[in-house]
Amino acid sequence: MIQNKNIVLTGGDSGIGMEVLKLLLAGKNRVLCVDKNIGNLEKINDDNLIIMQRDVSSKEAVDEIFETAIEKLGSIDIFYANAGYPYYEEMNYADWDRVARMFETNVYSPIYSYQKYVQYLNGKPGIFAITVSAIGQMAMPGFTIYSASKFAMHGFQQGLRLEMPKNVQLTCLYPVATDTNFFKAANEKEFKKPFPVQQPDVVARKMVKGIEKGKKSVSPCALFGISQLLIKFCPLVRTAYWALEKRKFNEFRGIQ
Question: pTM of whole model > 0.90?
């Protein structure tokens, strides 16, 4: 269990972030939890929790998070860039700003946070964590822009490992679809979730343990790992899986 650390966690008001927060607070860690929505956070009565309501999608917001963390916590042992959101939609439009908004949150913010954190550490040991996603390794119909943002983060962490300083531990989370408000955020219209679906508390426990053990990556779903091996040797497995998921997407679009 991670204990007695000073931690920044973004996207902690719901889903995986909320479950991670519960585990961190149970370990008597002091946590600066940042989210643009704080309704659930405000229900938690714990002196070790500091709530900050911010949208993390701008340089100014990230700068302010670091300033607040240093002021309130005194130090940052772990920075967990978890905030992110999806779209579930058909790519049949031209909207620069809509794409930019997702990349500002899902890509620019964690990259800039890493840059800031390394500067802050100045050679001291520290842990940086990112929620990437299994969809950053295999795209899905309906999640094209979201997949692109997570592929970007997968490439980012891959490149970092070739050049990052030895004082930094980088742990990346690769969850499959998780049963949270994620899907409501993706589209107000109900749609069938991709297979398989995990529970957020399971994902959170594995991620916290992964950070504690110094793992480079955490894949909470064993089935996904097995499927990747199968796909490597038999690409038709991926083709069949995509066909099933595309059928769900066509139902969402009203196409039989």
Answer: yes
CA 180 – CA 162 distance, rounded (Å): 34
Q: CA–CA separation, 256 vs 251, rounded Å?
A: 6
Distance CA(62)–CA(113), nearest Å, equals 7
pLDDT value, residue 225: 83
Would you state the pLDDT for residue 197? 86
pLDDT of residue 40: 95
Q: What per-residue confidence (pLDDT) applies to 161? A: 96
Residues of the chain with pLDDT under 50: none
Check residue 127 and give its pLDDT: 98
The pLDDT of residue 21 is 98
3-state DSSP of the chain: CCCCCEEEEECCCCHHHHHHHHHHHHCCCEEEEEECCCCCHHHCCCCCEEEEECCCCCHHHHHHHHHHHHHHHCCCCEEEECCCCCCCCCCCCCCHHHHHHHHHHHHHHHHHHHHHHHHHHCCCCEEEEEECCHHHCCCCCCCHHHHHHHHHHHHHHHHHCCCCCCCEEEEEECCCEECCCHHHHHCCCCCCCCCCEECHHHHHHHHHHHHHCCCCEECCCHHHHHHHHHHHHCCHHHHHHHHHHHHHHHHHHCCC
Angstrom CA distances, 79 to 65, 121, 127, 128, 212, stand at: 11, 11, 6, 5, 13
Q: In the sheet that 168-173 helps form, which strands lie side by side, from edge to edge?
A: 49-53, 30-35, 6-10, 78-81, 126-131, 168-173, 217-218
Closest CA to 87 of 135, 131, 129, 55: 135
